[in-house]
Specification:
This protein is an all-alpha fold. Helices cover 77% and strands 0% of the residues.
Length: 149
Amino acid sequence: MLRFSKDKVFATACIGIAAVLAVIVFSYPLESSYFPRILVVFIGAMGLLLLARNCLQKTAAKAAENFNQYKVQLSSAALVFTSIAAYTLGIYLVNYEITTALFLFFFMLALGYRKFTVMVVTSLSLTLALYLIFFEILAVARPDSLFFT
């Protein structure tokens, strides 16, 4: 029951923040604030959807089921944030190419895919595609690393 009230408070806060930001963003000219306007509308819409979902949901019947789903969602979110932090640290320590290939491989492994050859080929080909797009075609500067340049 406490989780639902937290969700309602969070949804209301999102709607309030979106409303305040909308007043600020919509005062700028359209050309310079196109993306922030879309973002504010998206945040407000997501807040409204979350609030509507929580107001319409029957809390007594599904409290235990939602608590179990909450634990699964929390562990999934922890996995994502931890892996992104490790990826960022890996880019800083090793280099972009090696870290990206390893990140993609281990993330496929964590998500349950078990065909080793397909995982290696996919991670290497995606790393090559990202390298070509960002560093060769778009000429983005490569991130600095501690051991390899």
